[in-house]
Amino acid sequence: SIKLNNILKKRGVGLIIEITERTPFSEHYETVATLSYLRDAGMLIALDDFCTGHSSFKYIQQFAVDFLKIDKSFTHKYIKDDISRAIVNCIIGLAHKLNIKLIAEGIETERQAMEMTKQGVHYQQGYLYSFPVSEEHFMSEKFISRLT
Questions:
Q1: Which domains does the chain show, CATH number per domain?
Q2: N or C: which end of the chain has fewer CB within 10 A?
Q3: Which residue range or ranges hold the EAL domain (predicted)?
């Protein structure tokens, strides 16, 4: 909600709405209008599971997205598998050309992190950085102090 977004902004926490590509969603006016409304309210839009679902390129053509999330099925195999490396490099090149930021999912090793950074991936997430945490734990002083 807009109210939640405003509260988070005051605390210095941005809100990113993730749209998963694994589930098809409507391209109807209502969907476009809702995403536009959220963007106008200051929320960012991320396309999750990029290249694993229904209409990757169609989604980035029709919906203004701020982030592409590279699925862990590609990042896990990046170092050892030529096909996965080629797919990830294509996603990175496309995002750079379209000025869309990148998030690599499933980063578990320093080597994976270094490779993604070297290739120009803006952000990373995975067990190397943190296991998933509850909202209560995230908002606790103990967890926030770990991030700084």
A1: 2-147 (3.20.20.450)
A2: C
A3: 1-146
